[in-house]
Design goal:
Blueprint (H helix, E strand, L loop, with lengths): L3 H8 L5 E3 L4 H11 L3 E6 L2 E7 H9 L10 H4 L13 H11 L3 E6 L2 E7 H24 L6
Parallel strand pairs: 1-2
Antiparallel strand pairs: 2-3, 4-5
Length: 147
Amino acid sequence: MTKVRDLLDKKGSGVVAVARGDSVLRAAQIMNENRIGSVVVTEGDSVVGIFTERDILIRVVAAQRDPERVAVEEVMTSPVACCRLDTSLSECRGVITERRIRHLPVVEEGHLVGIITSGDLIAIEMAEKQRTIEDLHEYIFGPSRVR
């Protein structure tokens, strides 16, 4: 069974984070610079929330709040669903589906160590299915020969 640790070993454990007191405007700029849909909100290296495109849309834009004056902690999603390094990817998939979220911070002993996304899970699932197809093809037709 594939674990979060296995996924992070392949994709890396880098996480883009902001402090809870950062402005919404700064957080949005960081998200744009990194071409990502969320940032983890931290205090030290502890996760205190997550700030997503959805939070910007619903809690800032639709509420007509000034992104320069609003702190991320005022509009972030908290508490945050998190997972651990030894969590199975199928369990993560269940949490992401059930809670209708796209980003799942990875926390060990209270410290942020990575993040996985719904896109990561889809990519892993597609790779596993492709391997299954190739294995079945080889089983049925024998090993392929490169000419």
